[in-house]
Amino acid sequence: MRILMWYLIIINVVTWVTYGLDKWKAKAGKWRIPERTLLLLALIGGSAGALAGMMVFRHKTRKAKFFIGVPVMFVVHCAIVAAAVLR
Question: Where do runs of H (alpha helix) occur along 1-87?
Fold first, then answer.
């Protein structure tokens, strides 16, 4: 259980930073992080960080695969963690 906790903390911090970095790159006109990478980070457990990054940085909030997909992943991840904790 402790490993799961640390994994989720790390992946969510990394995801949040990545969303912020991509927003900064978008504003600066620099090379961007692929959407596939952003979604993959959310999928592998970083959905809370992705959702926070979307809100804090106001990033990727108009694309359906983000404003629908990330919250759905978040709900699924919450259910998985709840099932693991309540086991």
Answer: 2-28, 35-41, 47-56, 64-67, 69-86
